[in-house]
TrEMBL record, chain B:
This is Glycine--tRNA ligase beta subunit. PROSITE patterns: AA_TRNA_LIGASE_II_GLYAB (PS50861). It comes from Sphingomonas lenta. Signal peptide: none annotated. The keyword Cytoplasm applies. Its main location: cytoplasm. Its EC number is 6.1.1.14.
Length: 311, 801
């Protein structure tokens, strides 16, 4: 048996896999967001007729899921691996299964299932049909055919794959806690560049210890959970929400859908923080979600208009 | 005759949609055949997650030839008419046939090859397929009208006999090629036709028949449990769902950490079932241990001992016998259960009383306040039901125990106060006489328990557990209440107060539970009706019909004697109390804020804002009579639906309801049953006929009798039959009235039965419309008396037949 992939090698493997199949390998969007779908490479590129194939890792922030580092499965910050293929290719399921095989899942010993799970994002005005993909009963991927985005029919439809990287890694590495995951690995063997380069690589390896996911992120989880739940200044957050909403509209008024969309993302994250602080009542909650949706839809509409695409 | 095979292979079809999809395929296919005049020997459908298939046996190779005759103009008609007919039919004059001076066109339609019919049918079926949700996909979805299917369609196999039926559906061309099991047999398979479909796929690890897959799961899961010394907890819903998720089902058993058994068994079962689609098992009771309540479960233990085992259904026969699959599933379940245990432990730390306070943050309905407001009304109503002796510690009351009804003879509670709404105390003081006697202390105890249980019954809505598993509402509250030391009867009431849910569900029997359950439903029905949200047609967003059926079940099971409309009005009165309190609070707040800001005189004027209260109350009072009428009709309709199964005739229920004023449903049903028995007898049927004859004459003559006119002494010597009917009425009327008063409805019917012979004889021998106006008047008055006597028991005009 070969050594299971470390967290970072799993990402490198997925990058290689999707790059070999014609995807752009993008970097994360540099803003706080609740899901990879918020990345403009997904949301805005899912609109309009132009083909688009891309893959990227997106850090996700879900303040209410924070557990101060005490729950082995829940994090307020984690990573999604997103693949967006437009139009959805006819063999998308086969392509996806190929990627699972690439990261070491053996289909003769594991049970892979496509279980109905229709995806909806109330804050993006988006929905699609698809499945959650189960591996031995664990949901490892959300597999969606987008039908609408920002309130607009997707023409054509995109296929979106969202891998839960930590879950997959826990699975592949057979770990019960996310914090025990091997983040890196200790490769051996030659690197390119001759004897000198090899000696330098050896030296570096000798000084690079093995890191676990906990070594990298446990303290972040503790501090961020405390801040999300207890510390964040709610007056300031309410104020920020208003300002992001206003700035979104300001940008829309100036015909700038991308900055407008960024402000919608900021408003969405600010709302999530307010939720974690427990200062939004049940009745208000729907109103806030509606507000964010209006902003996101406004940006999507402006994007459609800017590109001259009919609804 | 040849067979036809159709397979529509797609990406995974949701399990819950497969059974209906088979039915729809069968139905649409049959319709297409019928339209072409074809009929198959038999049609079978199959479904797996990846395919929907149909086999039609013994189809004729072509449709039958039809000869159609079209009538044309007369042979003598002008040439324009003939030309028009020839154009229409495409024939020449020589081809027409003449019969009796009329021209006919005979058009022979030769038979069409069945393959052509099938080729046309397939795209039609796909286009018309009623999936609950369908989607677009791929490059074709650039167009708005691109094909739709439940998930992307991958291949179509259509073979008639040995030949491929060439069609193109949603961009897919038909062929003889399909795929087997995704992992056991990844390559393509070529099918010969209907004859080898099932077995060829089985050889490629696909069992196309869902019933066969279900049987495998059912049998194998039970075996696995038995081999482990356990009993499978059967769940047909799960069997069907797992059959819809697999093409090659392989049940596997695993164990989870015994420590999780601290969590209530229902929670474990629900987590396993809903999130993971696993079966669970119980430890079989050994002799004498079967009824032992589970430790920690308190008053609400189910008695079943859950085992720390789960059975999952894999879609593959794994090369390691499933060891890795079981291990993976065990981990997932452990993560789920530790979440559930976390919620359980967290929730237990907070008393339900504290949780209940958070209910004032949840809006129940924008016009009916918060859930806390609802709870407050339910608590008051539950207490009232006990204090009035409607729900007692000894329900059910035997049906023969006839006693006077609390509040008998009083009208419904009306809100009459000009300045204050009735407080619940004021309302219960309407019947002070009931709060006396030996049973007072135990009644007060029961009332206090009912109120307490009601105040806590919705508290679990804000717990973490219900947030995660809404299905556990009620049940989990019962656990928490028991664990937190609430009275066992209150804990039981919290657990079961949603019951009965739907017809056939268990009806609560414990008095506290009955009071809370009934109060909850009466409040829901009443308040929604009073704000005008009554159900109409298929619209019943607040499930008021279901609530009404539950009320009926509770009333009947326990023979609960009370005036329903009065209780419903009281529920609304409690809501009005809340509204007035809100208004008074609001205006007090305004005054407080303005104190010192404006002068005293202006402040006094502001106080008149409170003058709104009586105005609002008056309008509520005005709306009451219409609400009463609609509520009565609503319950009459529900009663008819509910009693249909028991064989009670709906027209008889109408006949009793039509008398008006009767809202004690126990008494009403007793009367309906007596009436049904009576109209089934010969006397009853004849009396009904006599009544109808009398009523018809009165209607035809437009006769309205003056009060007591039928009893006036006569100015002439009556016919013997006329005199006999008068005598019969003199004797039957008071007897029927007394029997009705005593709720002896069989007796009332017996009294009416004595009228049958005299009425028949009267109609036989006596002329009503006598030329002598005095006789005519007296006889019409006599018929009116007959009608009125019958109406004391029921409105016979509503009875059919």
């Amino acid at each position: 048996m070969t050594e299971p992939l470390s967290f970072q090698r799993m990402i490198l493997t997925l990058h290689q896999y999707w790059s070999d199949r014609g995807c752009l390998i993008l970097q994360p969007y540099d803003m706080e967001m609740g899901a990879g779908t918020f990345h403009t490479a997904t949301t805005l590129r899912a609109l309009g007729p132009d083909p688009w194939n891309a893959a990227f890792v997106q850090p996700c922030r879900r303040p209410t899921d924070g557990r101060y580092g005490e729950n082995p499965n829940r994090l307020q910050h984690y990573y999604q691996y997103q693949v967006i293929l437009k139009p959805s290719p006819p063999d998308l399921q086969e392509l996806y299964l190929g990627s699972l095989a690439a990261i070491g899942i053996d289909f003769t010993r594991h049970d892979i299932r496509f279980v109905e799970d229709d995806w909806e994002s109330p804050t993006l005005g988006a929905w699609g049909l698809g499945w959650e993909v189960w591996c031995d009963g664990m949901e490892v991927t959300q597999f969606t055919y987008f039908q609408q985005m920002g309130g607009f029919d997707c023409k054509p439809v995109s296929g979106e794959l969202t891998y839960g990287l930590e879950r997959l890694a826990m699975y592949i590495q057979n770990k019960d806690s996310v914090y025990d995951l091997a983040f890196n690995d200790r490769p051996s063997g030659a690197v390119e560049g001759g004897a000198l380069a090899n000696r330098a690589a050896e030296d570096l390896r000798a000084h690079s210890p093995q890191f676990s996911y906990g070594d990298v992120f446990l303290e972040n989880e503790r501090q961020m959970s405390a801040w999300n739940f207890e510390v964040a200044d709610t007056d300031s957050l309410f104020d920020q929400f208003r300002k992001h909403a206003a700035e979104c509209e300001n940008s829309l008024g100036r015909g700038l859908p991308i900055p407008a969309y960024e402000q919608a993302i900021k408003a969405s994250h600010t709302f999530n923080l307010l939720q974690a602080r427990g200062v939004i009542s049940v009745a208000e909650r729907q109103a806030y979600i509606g507000r964010v949706r209006d902003l996101a839809k406004g940006a999507c509409q402006a994007w459609m208009e800017k590109n001259g695409w009919a609804a | 005759m040849p067979d036809f095979l159709l397979e529509l292979r797609s990406e995974e079809i949701p399990a819950r949609m497969q059974a209906k999809a088979r039915d729809d395929l069968q139905r649409l296919f049959a319709a297409e055949l019928a339209a072409a005049g074809l009929q198959a020997g038999s049609v079978t459908t199959y479904a797996t997650p990846r395919r929907l298939a149909l086999i039609a046996r013994d189809l004729p190779p072509e449709t039958a030839a039809v000869s159609e005759e079209i009538k044309g103009p007369r042979s003598s008609a002008p040439p324009q008419a003939l030309d028009g007919f020839l154009r229409k039919t495409g024939l020449t004059r020589e081809q027409l046939v003449e019969r009796d001076g009329v021209l006919f066109a005979v058009i022979d339609k030769p038979g069409r090859p069945t393959a052509h019919v099938l080729a046309a049918a397939i795209p039609t079926i796909v286009r018309a397929f009623p999936w609950p949700k369908s989607m677009r996909w791929g490059a074709a979805s650039l167009a708005t009208d691109s094909p739709r299917w439940v998930r992307p369609l991958q291949s179509v196999v259509a073979i008639f006999g040995e030949e491929i039926v060439p069609v193109e559906v949603a961009g897919v061309r038909s062929s003889a090629t399909t795929l087997g099991h995704r992992f056991h047999h990844p390559g393509p398979i070529t099918l010969g036709g209907a004859h080898d479909y099932v077995e060829k796929l089985r050889a490629c690890h696909v069992i196309v028949d869902p019933d066969e897959r279900a049987a495998i799961i059912r049998t194998r899961a039970a075996e696995l449990a038995r081999d482990a010394g356990l009993e499978l907890i059967e769940d047909e819903g799960l069997v069907a769902e797992n059959a819809g998720l697999t093409e090659w089902p392989v049940p596997l058993i695993g164990r989870f950490d015994e420590a999780f058994l601290e969590v209530p068994p229902e929670v474990i079962q629900l987590t396993a079932r809903v999130n993971q689609k696993y079966f669970v098992c119980r430890v079989p009771p050994r002799n004498g241990e079967g009824d032992q309540p589970r430790a920690g479960g308190g008053a609400v233990a189910t008695g079943a001992t859950l085992a720390n085992a789960f059975i999952c259904t894999a879609n593959i026969a794994a090369t390691d016998g499933g060891a890795k699959i079981v291990e993976g599933n065990r981990k997932v379940l452990a993560a789920r259960l530790s979440d559930a245990r976390f919620f359980y432990e967290q929730d237990l730390k907070v008393p339900l009383e504290e949780q209940a306070k958070k209910l004032d943050k949840i809006v129940f309905h924008e016009k009916l306040g918060t859930v806390a407001d609802k709870v407050d009304r339910v608590a008051k109503l539950a207490r009232w039901l006990v204090e009035e002796g409607i729900v007692t510690g000894s329900n059910p009351v035997p049906a023969t125990n006839v006693r006077s009804l609390p509040g008998e003879g009083r009208g419904p509670v009306t809100v009459t106060s000009q300045s204050e709404a009735p407080t619940p105390q004021a309302v219960s003081e309407l019947d002070p006489g009931l709060r006396r006697g030996r049973a007072e202390s135990s009644r007060e105890e029961l009332a206090a328990l009912a109120e307490r249980a009601a105040r806590l019954c919705k508290a679990d809505l804000v717990t973490g557990m219900v947030g995660e598993f809404p299905e556990l509402q009620g049940l989990i509250g019962g656990y928490y209440a028991a664990a937190q030391g609430e009275h066992p009867a209150a804990a039981e009431a919290i657990r079961d107060h949603y019951k009965p849910v739907g017809q056939g569900d268990e009806v609560p029997t414990a008095p506290v539970t009955v009071a809370v359950s009934l109060a909850d439903k009466l409040d829901t029905i009443s308040t929604f009706f009073f704000i005008g949200e009554s159900p109409s047609g298929s619209r019943d967003p607040f499930a008021l019909r279901r609530s009404a059926l539950a009320v009926l079940a509770l009333i009947q099971q326990h023979q609960l004697r009370f005036k329903l409309i009065k209780a419903l009005t009281l529920a609304w009165a409690f809501r009005i109390v809340q509204i007035t309190e809100n208004m008074n609070e609001a205006s007090d707040r305004v005054k407080d804020e303005l104190k010192g800001v404006v002068d005293e005189v202006s402040l006094e004027k502001i106080a008149t804002v409170q003058g709104i209260v009586p105005v609002v109350l008056a309008s509520f009072t005005n709306s009451q009579s219409t609400a009463h009428a609609t509520l009565a009709t609503f319950f009459a309709d529900r009663l008819k639906v509910q009693q249909r199964e028991a064989g009670v005739r709906h027209d008889l229920i109408d006949a009793v309801f039509a008398l008006g004023g009767e809202d004690d449903l126990v008494r009403l049903l007793a009367r309906v049953r007596a009436l049904q028995a009576f109209v089934g007898t010969e006397d009853g049927a004849n009396l009904l006929a006599g009544y109808k004859r009398a009523a018809n004459i009165l209607k035809k003559e437009g006769w309205t009798a003056a009060e007591g006119a039928g009893e006036k002494s006569l100015s002439y010597t009556p016919e013997p039959e006329e005199a006999a009917l008068r005598h019969a009425l003199d004797s039957a009327e008071p007897r029927a009235a007394a029997a009705v008063e005593a709720e002896e409805f069989e007796g009332a019917m017996a009294a009416l039965a004595t009228l049958r012979a005299p009425i028949d004889a009267f109609f036989d021998k006596v002329t009503v419309n006598d030329p002598d106006p005095a006789k005519r008047e007296a006889r019409l008055n006599l018929l009116a008396r007959v009608r009125d006597a019958v109406h004391r028991v029921a409105d016979f005009s509503r009875i059919e037949g």
